[in-house]
Amino acid sequence: RSDYKSVVVLKDDGTILQKSDAVLEIAKHLKGWRWLTIFRFVPAFLRDAAYTFVARNRYLFFGKLNKCRVPSPEIRQRFIAF
């Protein structure tokens, strides 16, 4: 299926990371989540399969909010809109 979207990270050196690679890159910069980087040793096809499973079932695992947080202007400038 291609009707869902993936997280994408654009690194300073121009490298583009998607799916599990992007999540692990983000995690290494977040206190309390750095331990996830141990999964870099798992082959990407397995990590991406796990990523897709969690992405498709995220509301079941984490719930769904009725409201979303509006980012501040400082945070908003860090996003790329298409």
Can you walk me through this structure?
The structure is a single chain. The protein is mostly helical and 82 residues long. The protein contains 4 helices and 2 strands. The chain has helices at 19-27, 44-56, 58-62, 73-76; strands at residues 8-10, 16-18. Strand 1 (8-10) and strand 2 (16-18) form a beta hairpin. 5% of the residues are buried.
Key terms:
single chain; 82 residues; mainly alpha; two-stranded antiparallel ribbon; 2 strands; globular
Compact summary:
The chain has 82 residues and is mainly alpha-helical. It has four helices and two strands, in the order ββαααα.
pLDDT < 50 stretches: none
Shape: globular
Number of helices: 4
Query: Order of strands across the biggest sheet?
Result: 1-2
Q: Calculate the mean pLDDT score and round it.
A: 88
Level of helix content? 25-40%
Helices, strands, pairings?
Elements: E1 8-10, E2 16-18, H1 19-27, H2 44-56, H3 58-62, H4 73-76
Antiparallel strand pairs: 1-2
